[in-house]
Write a structure and sequence with these properties.
Elements: H1 2-22, H2 27-30, H3 33-39, H4 50-72, H5 77-96, H6 98-102, H7 106-124, H8 132-152
Amino acid sequence: MPAAVALGVAIAIGAVVASELAGVRMGMFTRDIQSLSASGGLALPHYAGSLSMLTIMVWTAGSALAFAAAAVVRPRRSWLLVLGALLFMIAVDDAFMLHEGLGPPEVGFVIVYGVVAGWLAFRSLVHLRDGSGTAILVGGAALALSAAFDLWGTDP
């Protein structure tokens, strides 16, 4: 509990410092995109970014579940910790648009994600009979399909 409170306080202080350094009001960091766009004179439809927000929540929930499972499933702890870290990295990347903001070096993100996902998939092959290996392979295929849709739906 103390660590969670300390993290919350650190984030709040960080937001205050960041707003001062950027020369913008705190609301730029704390308000949702709908409110910010409306205050800037742009009315986005209520559904703008909804799937993006949903996927960020799913990545985060998956990460939390993997970390929680790692605490109780000793034989697969390292695998679950790596999965939790990968899902958390993807959630942060999606939330803060890290790879989009970097331009061409975004290939580095794909390589890191691919290597980690490859390790997870390889280590899952021995668990095909219990269903967990199949689940990670199906999840990986769904992620690949999602990435393809994302590329297809992006303007050149």
